[in-house]
């Protein structure tokens, strides 16, 4: 009989135990040393312990190893080239430290990986022993991961024309990210001495209609304008606000560049057209 079909087992309690054993190394060690006493300490009644141990405590330990292994593999994919910079041993130690100190809060695996990224990026930014660009590199990789799994729908292009006095329809997944290093240029497998160029960059990042994550580096005025459009400003407000923010006077050349940028962004599915 499988554990799922065993009527003597308190399945809700077992789920709680699995969660605790996965998150707390001390609890895992206690259960490994004395399964019956360890499970009793976690609140399982005698009948549930007996039924569970009849299937062998090895299942619990195997599940522990499987989940931790999967989490480490997924984190390596999540932070992309930052994982290569950290190295396998340091990354594994960071995942274990996170589980020990904070641990997952969500029951959805993709969200658990994102929780680790949020914790790790802040930790790495404060670590003087690590390259100063590692944290933003990891953050950028995590953002790409989240976009691939983002449940928001990328709408079809609008039939309305873009109007100077109206807001512009935008891709719901789009954002403008600003970094002090060109982390978006780092290859997936960076060399041992490879480091991103140190310069201020603005990068539009979004998921297109086919579900692929796209990036587009923007010059300062266009980045400022796109940020304003994404915030819901009218095209006029965004255009004049961007010129003011970058210290430029609106002229025919800027109007021409703006028209070309809007057409390009619509073609890329970064913008979706006008609004009614």
Please render the helix and strand layout as text.
Layout: H1 11-23, H2 25-33, H3 35-41, H4 46-54, H5 58-78, H6 81-86, H7 88-101, H8 109-125, H9 134-148, E1 168-170, E2 175-181, E3 198-207, E4 213-218, H10 220-230, H11 235-245, H12 252-268, E5 271-274
Antiparallel strand pairs: 1-5, 2-3, 3-4
Helix pairs in contact: 1-2, 2-3, 3-4, 5-7, 5-8, 8-9, 10-11
What does this structure look like?
- With 276 residues, this protein is mostly helical.
- The chain has helices spanning 11-23, 25-33, 35-41, 46-54, 58-78, 81-86, 88-101, 109-125, 134-148, 220-230, 235-245, 252-268, and strands at residues 168-170, 175-181, 198-207, 213-218, 271-274.
- β3 (198-207) and β4 form a beta hairpin.
- α1 packs across α2 (25-33) and α5 (58-78) packs across α7.
- The longest helix is centred in the N-terminal third of the chain and has 21 residues, at 58-78.
- Residues 1-8 have low confidence and may be disordered.
């Amino acid at each position: 009989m499988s554990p799922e079909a065993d009527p003597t087992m308190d399945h809700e309690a077992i789920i709680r135990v699995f969660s605790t054993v996965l998150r707390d190394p001390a609890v895992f060690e206690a259960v490994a040393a004395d399964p019956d006493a360890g499970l009793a300490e976690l609140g399982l009644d005698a009948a549930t312990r007996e039924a569970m141990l009849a299937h062998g405590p090895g299942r619990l330990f195997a599940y522990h190893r499987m989940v931790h292994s999967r989490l480490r593999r997924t984190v390596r994919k999540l932070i992309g080239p930052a994982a290569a910079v950290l190295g396998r041993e340091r990354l594994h130690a960071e995942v274990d430290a996170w589980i020990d100190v904070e641990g997952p809060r969500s029951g959805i695996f993709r969200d658990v990986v994102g929780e680790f990224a949020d914790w790790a990026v802040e930790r790495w930014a404060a670590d003087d022993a690590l390259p100063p660009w590692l944290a933003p590199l990891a953050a950028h990789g995590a953002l790409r991961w989240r976009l691939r799994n983002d449940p928001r729908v990328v709408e079809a292009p609008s039939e309305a024309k873009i109007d100077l006095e109206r807001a512009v329809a935008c891709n719901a997944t789009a954002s403008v990210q600003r970094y002090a290093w060109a982390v978006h240029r780092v290859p997936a497998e960076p060399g041992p001495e490879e480091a991103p160029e140190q310069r201020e960059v603005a990068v539009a990042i979004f998921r297109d209609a086919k579900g692929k994550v796209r990036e587009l580096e923007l010059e300062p005025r266009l980045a400022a304008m796109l940020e304003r459009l994404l915030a819901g400003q009218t095209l006029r407000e965004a255009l004049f606000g961007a010129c003011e923010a970058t210290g430029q006077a609106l002229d025919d050349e800027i109007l021409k560049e703006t028209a070309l940028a809007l057409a390009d962004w619509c073609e890329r599915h970064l913008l979706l057209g006008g609004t009614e």
